[in-house]
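Exercise (ungraded).
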Amino acid sequence: GENVEQHPSTLSVQEGDSAVIKCTYSDSASNYFPWYKQELGKRPQLIIDIRSNVGEKKDQRIAVTLNKTAKHFSLHITETQPEDSAVYFCAASIGGAQKLVFGQGTRLTINP
Amino acid sequence: GAVVSQHPSRVICKSGTSVKIECRSLDFQATTMFWYRQFPKQSLMLMATSNEGSKATYEQGVEKDKFLINHASLTLSTLTVTSAHPEDSSFYICSATLGGPDEQYFGPGTRLTVT
């Protein structure tokens, strides 16, 4: 079945610097790749998503890139702020279906 | 728009009892709802997929007789944890989707503690 690997598991950056989180997936039929931010005890919140027909998408300080050939996608956060501190999860659809498989998560800490 | 609620937000029950968790889509009709379980400091693990009016589809390793799912309408799905044990203590989160490989809207989660 689909497997999603996410790295790193923890990431600490200085405020204002950039943060990059990477994920790889196994199912070549996957076509939807969302990124979620989850604060402690709260629901996951979608921060950005990308579909397989697009290579890059940007929304203000957040961008996602997708390399279908290599089956990996990355989250880029620029000009990081303390409120960016949270756990981030990548996910991939299982083929063209609605189900998502989540990566293991990255705990991002922004140091002031 | 696209708001999903869950009730209760937290529940404590005794070992051997059953607990029901509700998931509602408040402002849209959800063709499909999903149930996830999340243990502390771990990722979301899909338990089952629920479609209105049909039987839920369970992921491998999830006991369908222990985790009963009912999807009676396009806005309500329920998860019942039967004969709960301490190892069932977890954060249970539902999500709803409008269809297709598209955004899933998550509920706020239910923290279940079995004593």
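Further reading is listed at the end of the chapter. For now, observe: Chain B is about 0% helix and 50% strand. The radius of gyration of chain B is 13 Å.
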